[in-house]
Amino acid sequence: MKKRSNLPRLLCFLMVIIAAIGLVGCGSKTKEEPENKSDNTADTAASAAVETKFGNIEITDKPKRIVALGWGDAETALALGVEPVGASDWLAYGGEGVGPWLEGAYQTAPTILGTMELDYEQIAALEPDLILDVRSSGDQERYNRLAEIAPTIGVPEGGDSYLTSYQQQVQMIAKAIGKEAEGEQLLQDIDAAFEKARTDYPQFAGKTVAVGAYTSEGWGAYVNGDARVDFMTELGFTNKEEIEKQANGAFYIKVADEQLELLDADLTVVLPIWVETKEVTGNVLYQKIPSVADGRSLIIEGDYANAFSSGTAPSLLWAIEQLPTMLDKALKGGE
Question: How far apart are CA 141 and CA 57, in angstroms?
Fold first, then answer.
């Protein structure tokens, strides 16, 4: 698999604890413009009110300078045909801060901003008229400081700790920027892509899966509500019940070395985070997991891991095209 450079320590850690391309053309597109080019302003959002954890946020004017800070918020805005002037690069892609599924989507590269630790003066200097922080921590102090700069679309109710679903992310951003029809189409495209994948791979239905991660902190497993597990369940898999029983309201559980068989399932998927892949494949305990020993396991890394983890609308569409073939091969024992 294609492999990118190592992720910064903090971002890799965040991948653990938190949780394609059907770009909608802008109205001003000319015949000479590429199909996937986006506009840098939103359509008129006439008196749009977006419900958030922090109350209804009124958007009365057409946003022209959007800053996207939440996990995947910039990708979502781009997929809806609007270019943020400032954006957070959560997965340290570099450049314009987006994955290969959105390569060339910007006409003007954004100013790349921080992620968890924000430079509020830098954000204010961009003179935004709308801030997107839809998939984020939901921290009140962070919201308050951003709201002092510009109207801010924070997390929805229940979206704390990066648990905003991709559906909520698309709907909230689409409403804020006056692109609701495009947002609905984008969600329909994803539904159709998952439906096609389920039809193409009926063998996934009812099979158990364990989605784990290995970092310098040790082993862990994701549970329902996390983008990675949700991706697998949309394909027809069922997250292993024994893992779900330990969730206790969390979306990621730690797995001790002596409990590693918890990752045994019809299919075991593991993401190496902050470590080299060989630290997983060369781990004797990992090799002893029955499904791994039987070849029914898959290491997901590089762009595939980023798409799998991002859980944004464009990355999902890309991942749905890329991953099912790999998953099918692994489910068959790596034939």
Answer: 17
